[in-house]
Specification:
68% helix, mainly alpha, 341 residues
């Protein structure tokens, strides 16, 4: 018998009895019950009974437990619950969110990471992202505090940073203004040069969401972020390249963005991505689409059109791509490049 787990009752009594054992005064007993509950939450039927049985509210006190191991294990349990849509909806309709949010400042790194995992799962739902919008300034502050920590702190530091960035990205997809008001462009720009490809990927993804509003486009153009993004178009990680191309695509819509991109000589870099016939790789489909749309926007500027007129054979070949979305995007690019008044 595993001494780290509490005994599990037979049949439908398994979940109720384990939640009942969470009230025991000994922290070790609470931990054993939480460990058994974490095992049970991997079974969809037991998770459903937990959610519909009203047991989640009993975790409120455990999120404030004086033992950091209990707090961490409770967050792990909530992470397993929020991995399912019905669990996310149940947590959002409960009173657990304020207590869970307070654990972002917990002294235990495992508690912080498990709390962030649960919050990140909640943000996958539009209702969850909406509920977490008020937390965006705090998330940005936590991200800023990561700047002062050594990059050699290990995987835990990277994971915490990735989770913060991913949650900010989900929330900004719904409304980018809270992150923009928290100096988001400048802060996220500093994350683009991190050694971890996961951090660079999520930072570029967040910037792509922030560059959708006009104010976000303007901030990206005026800051020192765009040159770094252009450099990331040649990153080894395809997802980093894709997200960087998405930001360039968004920024190139406004006139200032077009001129800034042309000054940075981004056209040859985007054309190089097309010349590698990346559309043959399903993972790179979005990268090719973003590159073509960025080129289309840049072709609306005289200097951009002049550069692209010299590359019409390459653009014409792209119109024969296998994916219909890429074919249509390439046809639009050719039509804009060859347009005459």
């Amino acid at each position: 018998m595993d001494s780290t787990r509490a005994p599990v009752a037979f049949g439908r009594w398994d979940v109720p009895l384990l939640f009942g054992r969470l009230q025991q005064p000994e922290a070790a007993e609470r931990l054993r019950s939480l460990a058994s509950l974490c095992d049970l939450m991997r079974d969809p039927e037991r998770l459903y009974r937990t959610v519909t049985g009203g047991f989640l509210e009993q975790l409120q006190d455990l999120l404030k437990d004086e033992d950091p191991s209990v707090r961490s294990k409770t967050c792990e349990l909530l992470h397993l619950v929020t991995a399912h849509s019905i669990g996310r909806q149940a947590v959002l309709s409960s009173s657990l969110l304020p207590s869970l949010s307070q654990l972002l400042d917990d002294s235990s790194s495992s508690s912080r990471i498990n709390a962030l995992r649960a919050l990140n799962c909640l943000a996958l739902l539009p209702a969850g992202a909406d509920a977490l919008l008020c937390l965006v300034p705090k998330l940005m502050l936590k991200l800023q505090q990561q700047d002062g920590e050594d990059e050699d702190d290990g995987d835990d530091g990277d994971e915490e940073e990735v989770l913060l960035l991913s949650t900010i990205s989900c929330c900004s997809r719904l409304d980018a203004l809270p992150a923009l008001a928290s100096d988001g462009v400048s802060l996220l720009g500093r994350k683009l040069t991190r050694r971890s490809p996961e951090v660079r990927r999520e930072a570029a993804a967040s910037l792509m969401e922030l560059s959708i509003p006009v104010e976000g486009k303007r901030q990206v153009c005026e800051g020192a972020v765009l040159p770094v993004l252009v450099g990331l178009l040649q990153d080894e990680d395809v997802d980093v390249r894709t997200n960087a191309a998405g930001v360039v695509m968004n920024v190139a819509i406004i006139t200032a963005g077009k001129l800034r991109c042309l000054d940075l000589d981004v056209v040859p870099v985007l054309l190089d991505l097309l010349s590698k016939r990346l559309e043959e790789d399903e993972r790179s489909k979005a990268l090719v689409l973003y590159s073509l749309r960025a080129l289309t926007a840049l072709a609306e500027a005289p200097d951009g059109r002049r550069l692209l007129l010299q590359q019409l054979p390459l653009l014409a070949r792209t119109t024969e791509a296998r994916h219909p979305d890429i074919r249509r995007a390439a046809q639009t690019t050719v039509r804009v490049v060859t347009w005459t008044p």
